[in-house]
Amino acid sequence: MSAISDLTALIGEYNLLEKKQAELDRIKAEGPRDIRRGALRIYTGSLYVLDNVLYCIAMKEGLKQLYLIASGPFESGFEGKRLTEGGIHILQAPLTKENSRELRRLFPFTVPVSLRNQRTTIGCGDRLGMASAAHLRAIRQFDAYPVLAQQSIRELNFTGRDFEGVVADASFLVFQEGYEEGWGADGDHLKTIADIDSALDAGMPMITLDLTEVLHPEAAGFDEQTLEDRFSLIDDTIREYILAEYVGKKFSGDHYAISFSYAEAVTCTLMYWDALEFAAEVDAHLRARRGDAYDLEISIDETTSPTLPAHHLFITRELHRRNVAVNSLAPRFIGDFQKAVDYIGDPEEFEQQFIVHCGIARSFGAYKISVHSGSDKFTVYPYIGRHTGRRLHLKTAGTSWLEAVHAIARTDPQLFRLMYRKALGYFPEALKSYHITADLSVLPDIDTLQNDELEQYFDLAPSRQLLHITYGGLLKDPEVRGRFFTALNEHEDVHYGLLEKHFVKHLELLRLPRRNSVREQP
Ligand code: ZN
Fold this sequence. Notes:
alpha/beta; binds zinc ion; eight-stranded parallel β-barrel; seven-stranded antiparallel sheet; single chain; disordered C terminus; 522 residues
């Protein structure tokens, strides 16, 4: 049977054209997540009626499309193929950027929004444009909100995507799941107004401003004389302000008491002043473009040394004085937050410093502490959840790619073996972009492993990191790319299942309350 006759048969079987939205919503609430016939599945979360037209997303043989279905002819702004079958009129619309614009126009819940009023947000980078559905299935079980379309320029370059495409993919998956509670989209680690504009043009409400290039970390190593020389070059009014405002002053709050020596105050000024001025410029730009509907994250995590409490306090006070609407701030924490593996360092020392960072955040508008490279840091999650009081942004990205590769290892061992060998080849190049310390020599030789032993690579830190950072090479590899996407669609249940489970584990360890338990309370 063709896709279309399977589709019309399913519609007939479930009487979908006769149903009102409330009845469709009951199907969504009670399950199943999809209804199937032959090689076709309709995602029940995507069943919507608008002006007597039924909308849904369906997949047939690895190809997902949006379907508009009605018992008579209808007008539509979607571009696609018109078909009729047994008196039913169908428009089969590919999941393109153009069609995503029309989707967002008709269904406002598919437009990303500011989440500045939400306590807990989870950044779910999806390099493939296929993972957001599973992220939603996990996050909607908890009292938290998802930031789905989250990519950095580096990721866009490695994956050959652009911001508009990233938002389009997420919009369709939000529609597929029927998730109406609000989701964010994050132009991640942006450094210039031009890059910020391209994220804003794509409709992204969250901007993670990476201040790395306007910071002067070298100031931390200056001797007294150099500090003095450089400070003397700064504008008089700024110098007078710093001397009066910081030198010899003590600031205390929840779990912190910080005083500034002359050297400390001067070091902070030299390190951060330019960056603070730039942050204020960016904030004004965001406000001009989006009113109050934006989420600005200030990121200073990609520096060489941990953010000292005094520096965090200095940055925060100065942002506050400039009226910058800080929604979240990402310090660099003590210890090592490497990709795809657990926290490396002394958890107790982490907890002590983390308490101080949280106290500083509470003193100035209670912005969210943002934890980057946040996936898989299971040892320290209980501290992160507790000390932030869940006012938290946890940013993850590569771990979802890794679960996609995991799904391949389980379902298509031959393809996984090819990817693993290729990853070894791409590793030296990938190391130039990512800081990790994996020792690959301890890994078992893949030729000695049976197919059902391949998944052990996802329990071993070095192979997790190997597969994590080589996504750029793998996704561009002509022998891998097509087969990989086809296999993921074919084994979507396994892919979604692994991802959902992995995210639920994260959210449970953060001790986020379950939604059901919230509702069940009298
Ligand atoms: Zn970061």
